[in-house]
Amino acid sequence: MQSARETWFLLLSIPFYTILIGAEIFLSNWKHKKFYTVAGVLQNIIFTIFNASIDVLLRWAFYAAVLTWSYSHHFFVIENIYLYWFLLFLLEDFAFYIEHSVDHYSRIFWAVHLTHHSSEEYNLTTGFRSSVFQPVYRFIYFIPITLLGFEPIDIIFMYAVTQTYGIIVHTQYIKKLPTFIEAIFVTPAHHRVHHASNIIYLDKNMGMCLIIWDKIFGTFQAELPNEPVVYGLTKEVTNPNNPFSHIFYEWKNIAKDLKSKMPFFTKLKYIFKPPGWSHDGSSFTAVQLRKELKKNKN
To answer: Residue 288: inside a domain, yes or no?
Structure first.
């Protein structure tokens, strides 16, 4: 399921990304910032290839079949073309916010999403550092949109468009944008917070294009001048140069926890509760870590 429109958009985006990334690499080296390493860029490319390969394989099995079937049962029709595309943008962005939140607050989905956060480098190529197995379940979040009368092929195209915006905010070069932009849209400053391993920043700023969802649902956190962002995970991946160490890092941790003797429903909690949850207090969720940090400061 890929329209000629989406194909052309993807082809046109290649020189756009090439120019932006090339400029950032040039500035990074010229200013001795060292935002890029060859190993880091190659790893980001590998994750993108893995993700894209799975996405292509599942396009017809899941996206075409399931979304076409659900669209055939839609119960709403929007005739105004401008309203149609505006609402599709809002619904698409909101669906991403929900999906992204689930990826962070449920450990089994965090095991998939972790690869996008595991790099200690942060640059435009980090935007391509895909959650490898996400295409396996991402289509589920599109089903409600099809039921509202939006065609699957339009949903996939809008996802490609919004994803482009989501990629270009992965930069350290743009500090702050005008206040009205910072108030409505996801900006580089907002998204740097999202990629931070600092306790105060964990699981914040989930939006793709619009930051308003985070402000509505209480997941917004501004970048603080006295709290420099530290990129990566709260725990370092063993053998970080091996891409498969990142892909299966949390799956191995889940398997290790499930080997322990405990009731069945407790084991389920280790799978579906937020990362860091433990029944005995041996590890902590982001919410618990923030409460502890606040208590210590007081």
So the answer is: no
Q: Is 234 exposed, middle or buried (0-12, 13-18, 19+ CB in 10 A)?
A: middle
At residue 238, φ and ψ (nearest 5 deg) are -70, 135
Contact between 212 and 202 (Cβ < 8 Å): no
pLDDT at 1 exceeding the cut of 70: no
How far is the C-alpha of 64 from the C-alpha of 59, rounded, in Å? 6
DSSP-based three-state secondary structure for 121:
coil
How far is 38 from 2, CA to CA, in rounded Å? 32
Do 89 and 131 form a contact (C-beta atoms < 8 A)?
A: no
pTM summary value: 0.93
Domain count, the chain: 1
pLDDT digits (tens, 9 = 90+) for 89-108: 999 999 999 999 999 999 99
How many residues can be counted in the chain?
298
Range of the domain at 48: 4-176
